[in-house]
Prior knowledge:
Elements: E1 24-34, H1 42-54, E2 61-73, E3 81-94, E4 100-105, E5 108-113, H2 119-122, H3 124-137, E6 142-154, H4 171-174, E7 191-196, E8 201-212, E9 218-229, E10 233-234, H5 237-258, H6 261-267
Antiparallel strand pairs: 1-5, 1-6, 2-3, 3-4, 4-5, 6-9, 6-10, 7-8, 8-9
Helix pairs in contact: 1-3, 3-5
Amino acid sequence: MSEETGPLAGLPPADRTLLVRPPLELAILEVRFRAEGADVAPEVALQARDRLASLGHSYARMEEAQEGRIEIQMQPGAAPMSQVQQVARGWQLNATDGTGHITLLPGSVALQTTRYERWSRTLNPVLEALMTVTEELLAPALVERIGLRYVDRFTDPEARTPASWRERIHPDLLGAVLHPVFGQHVRGAQQQLELNLGPAQGALLRHGPFLDLAVSGAISYLVDIDVYDAEASRFRSADLVTRAEVLNRTAASLFQATVTADYLRTLQRAQDDDRIEETTP
Length: 281
């Protein structure tokens, strides 16, 4: 790993051992930009689908996508009124294997997947192809923001109280769960941390225990990391891939900082020779 692709703000590099028990539920990468045109035409979406296929990525099924904006009108003596306005139309290209999709809009492209192995295999190849296709077909003039979000859900059928996560989540994050009076009564808690990682870079960390009906009513733990780079720049596909990799390294560092060292080891492979380019956030 070079300094160019290390974590933002001098965060500690993440352990690169692959997680054998990855808790990842969802990964989303979005690039917002300025470009000409109010909609993505069907012909452009077809070209994008075919171009992606030629680069080895199959997103055969297409659906129309819309970007909306909610406007709230407030007048003295009257109840607030909300109105949803359609801003732009685009297309959603769905992966053939059903694990994710790509959304093409006039001002953004997004890549989403529910199956994640590691950056170099799961997201980076598709991102490289998507940035190339976006540059060719949508001709963006200015990049406004790159965002990368990982949603992780730690589960344990035996965890019946938030305190069950005491030895697994870093104690400085558990807050009221460890309180001598409140702790035994807490059933769920959600916190949001806003982190400053540079002049135009940052992250939102949402985390906490919750009652998980999908695991027979056990207490699971959510870690939702949203890292972003809002530095404006010209749209260059290669540069964007590198900046996205920096965000991935940053998310991996933040992920590992949320758990204890002992718990991280239980999520990793035991073999010392099973090393990869990055950890799964």
